[in-house]
Amino acid sequence: MAELDEFLDGESRPPAKGTLGTESRWLHFCDLDLRSGRLLVIDPSFAPYEQDGLLVDLPVTRYTVSAKVLDYGTEKRVSRLQVVTRLAEATLGPEIGKTWSDTARTGVCDYQLYKEAWGDDERGWQIVGPTLEELSSGVAVLDEAAGAILPFLESGFGDGEFPVFELLDGHSNSRVGIEVQFIAQGEPYPF
To answer: Which of 13, 43, 89, 136 is a Cys-bridge partner for 101, taking CB atoms 3.0 to 4.6 Å apart?
Structure first.
């Protein structure tokens, strides 16, 4: 998380409406072990129910979670979130669905592990609620030993619906990850 945190750190103030940003390289956020082969992309403030996010089948392995950030000179916004196998030479594939956020944050988790560790809503909220109240980006931990974690980031300019693309291996053309696009390339600052 340090690499992304360092890039986002610092004072910010809104730039002029219409300002164009400069996109960063991929910045490492954390690693995520996907043990069930089912990745859930969801607003972290929602309980891990399939109907509230986008469920994607991926190979069982360790993934790197990274983000790109648009720097508008006086403010920085997360523009893309990527979850990809560590050794893949990934290329952007077609859109496979959409995810949405109601709290200006988007997270990813191993659906089965996170759902099992969540238990009922009261138990889940007691554990992750303080993290979500304290941080705009971070890792919600339900059961670290079991792999029930949910890395989450601020989603672009806030709430909304966002396209999710599959990432394909450059050699075999098989799915090796996903990419969520919060801010389209070249999109000006809207406020």
So the answer is: 43
Give residue-wise pLDDT tens across range 13-35.
999 999 999 999 999 999 999 99
User: In total, how many domains does the chain have?
Assistant: 1
Task: Indicate the angle between helix axes 111-118 and 121-134, nearest 10 degrees.
Answer: 110
In a domain, 186, yes or no: no
From 13, 44, 74, select the one nearest 149 (Cα to Cα).
44
Is residue 49 in a domain?
yes
Q: Is residue 190 part of a domain?
A: no
Flag whether 69 is in a domain: yes
